[in-house]
Predict the structure.
Amino acid sequence: MKASIRLQTLAATLALGMLPAPARAFPDCPADHVADGYTCTEQTGAGKTGGFFRVTFPSNWDGDLVIINHGFDLNDLHTRPHETCSHYAGMTCEQDSDCGPGHFCNEISYLGLDEVLLPMGKAVAAGTYTDSGWATFHSAKDLKDIIKYVKKSSGFGAGLKRVIVTGFSGGGAVTADATLKLKIDGAVPLCAAAAGGLVTWDVAHEVRLVYDYLCNDVPGAKFIYPSDQGQPNGPNASNDAIGVAMKVDACFGVLGLVPGDGHQAERFAEFLALTRFTGDAGHGGSGVNVASAIGFPVLGMGDFVWDPKRLKGKRIGLNDTLDYLSLGNDPMLAADYDANVERLTAGKGRKQLRKVFSPDFEKGFGKKVAYPILSMAGANDWLVIPEFNRVYDDALTAGGKPHTQTWIETYGHCVFSEQEVTALFTKYFEWLGPAGGPYGAQPTAADIADACLALPGGIAGDTCNFDLGFTPGAIFDRIPQRPDWPAAAKGS
């Protein structure tokens, strides 16, 4: 199962469609669970606004339902029922080969967490979301549809005691958003893009601005759509992503697809200096990392800005008054960037983006949160930067909410081992205690690290990589803060 979690979570970085998913069949119940004499009941359903979902109940169900949220995905072919073919939703399948050459069998994946949670007696659910890409515009409604189905239509509603929400990457953002909008009983955000809509996309936009500053004059590297609108997505997200990768390679030469011009390495070094980007060429290649990071403000932003059901073309903007002199780690380069970066006034989309998802546990629905929240993220995550989790952590602290943040010393985005994830959920459910209360003792990060080491195969620095001394910086140390950011993201 260790490989399963690593592959499924790493797939969040490939969600722009640059690499295909491996072919596989989708079992309903973990093999070791079946070997222990338990069975599973799987059901599927559809939400009111176009999303689909899958729910699995183990025969030893204890009444807890864990909803698992997948990461950022621009491929609309994934928004279809579980085990149906990519080219025709009316054709059922069990594996990719059932759909014929060039097609795939759509999986509403549990991202490997079913292998941890079902043996614990937890029911699991996952959905497609109504929206592709940045799903927090409507994902709370998608989760409500799942909960309503389990309560009223599954035949298991009488046994439902608690609902816990979790998810990786963009699914971590969906999880954090759910804590601010839904009546649930617990949350476990994983490598979560949890800083809120404005902060997340201002950081992404800044990456695009740096790219444009360095690359707009490079043949074959310029993007034609406005930096704060992004590129409207075509019918094939994979082709769009490949186009992004080719442009990035023309400028930086990090993928080996485009002939060099003698200046690619220099431009890439300046990109790293201005963004403090932490892509690691030693694990999976920094080229894929950088191409994905630039794909988010280009394709990811375009996905919701141009969408008539989300921002309706309203731009984001807002850097016309910012001081970039302290950006990055090269003062002379920062001064030139400050003098030459594209300047944009505040766009009309900012107010709506802030309304969609803004972490604040001091008022409104978030003020009522009283259940435990346990988070895990990568200390060197190159995509969901640690500062995103710092914003959410600061918001929880300001609201006086019970929460623990753990950090993993990993080499990429959302890369966790079986032991790390098992320890996290084991300690979380100990903290959550029995349905109806009371809560158990709140675990520290050290408690979870110790639980990891106690598991079979738990090895310090290998399968248990907890970084107990890590503290992320503030978002405003990474990029200049905007005046309309949520309080938890500001310096004062």
Summary: The chain has 15 helices and ten strands. The first strand starts at residue 40 and ends at 46.
